[in-house]
Design a protein that fits this description.
alpha/beta; 2 domains; 10 helices; binds S-adenosylmethionine
């Protein structure tokens, strides 16, 4: 019965207009909504779902989901909603953090920040108004990320998902300091979504500017941690989408749990492990 339902849903959700309607109707499990793109922010749901699965398999009771760059708060509210639903289904408590200056974009440093697209003062927020809409498990951390991350990063549950949406190369580079913490502060594989590697078209994103440059410098500067897309992710999704190419994983190869077998822990095989 479930197979028939999923097949029908797969056909229905193949049509973008139907998906848009179904997104507004609160039905089905978080797993099903994640598989068929039925959240307002499908890449956030994909990252949180898979990170929470990983956390549960590792026996963790809590994890963090982060948005870097909050602006008006639509993304943070979506992340909060997704995290609540996934948390209830998977049984891992998810604490959500939104980091933002609170006063819009800082001064661009140079061409690497794409000042032809963004500039100082863009995306101001009404922090008090947003705070009133947030639940108890969501925290808004205001200030320049190069200051707020060192103050916050060492006291949060293990990070499982991060949406990077700070637009600039320089801000993204600062945000990567979230990984300069003890390995107990993150899952061995952290699901990351990079918003600013496509759109607007006139940004002409390339490896020498913006988030792509920050990613490639991170990889050059770190031997035991790498940021990498999931090879052929779009080939594994029921409805391949552009965001599939915006998902990267922070691989922490020396994390004590990097080699812990998740296949057995997730119950995907029933054999007892050989001693
Ligand atoms: C495009 S907006 C975020 C939009 C939001 N994620 C959404 O989906 O609704 C980018 C935000 O990044 C913040 N930002 C950029 N650089 C920053 C920095 N160095 N420190 C703190 N916030 C920064 C800006 O204040 C701005 O609100």
């Amino acid at each position: 019965m479930r197979r028939v339902f999923n097949t029908v849903l797969r056909y229905l959700t193949a049509v973008p207009e139907t998906r848009a309607i179904l997104r507004r109707i609160p039905f089905g499990s978080a797993e099903m909504r994640t598989a068929f793109e039925l959240w307002s922010r499908p890449p956030y749901a994909y990252g949180v779902w898979n990170a929470a699965q990983q956390a549960r398999a590792l026996g963790l009771k809590m994890m963090s989901a982060i948005e870097f760059g909050v602006a008006g708060g639509n993304g943070l509210l979506a992340l909060e909603n997704i995290s609540e639903k996934i948390s209830a289904e998977i049984g891992v408590q998810i604490i959500v953090y939104g980091f933002d200056s609170g006063i819009g974009m800082p001064q661009a440093s140079d061409f690497r920040d794409l000042p032809h697209v963004w500039q100082r003062g863009f995306y101001r927020m009404d922090a008090e108004k947003l705070r009133r809409r947030l639940g108890a498990n969501t925290h808004l951390v205001l200030g320049e990320v190069s200051n707020t991350i060192p103050e916050t990063a060492s006291s949060i549950p293990p990070v499982g998902f991060i949406a990077f949406d700070l637009d600039y190369y320089s801000s993204t580079k600062s945000a990567f300091n979230i990984f300069d913490t003890e390995s107990s502060r993150r899952l061995p594989r952290v699901y990351c979504y990079f918003d600013d590697i496509m759109y607007p078209e006139w940004a002409c994103h390339n490896p020498y500017v913006g988030e792509l440059r920050a990613i490639s410098e991170f990889n050059e500067e770190h031997n035991t941690m790498k940021l990498s897309p999931i090879h052929l992710l779009r080939g594994m999704r029921p409805h391949p989408q552009a965001w599939n190419d915006q998902i990267y994983i922070l691989h922490d190869f020396e994390h004590p749990d990097y080699n812990t077998n998740l296949t057995i822990r997730r119950g995907a095989v029933t054999e007892k492990p050989l001693k």
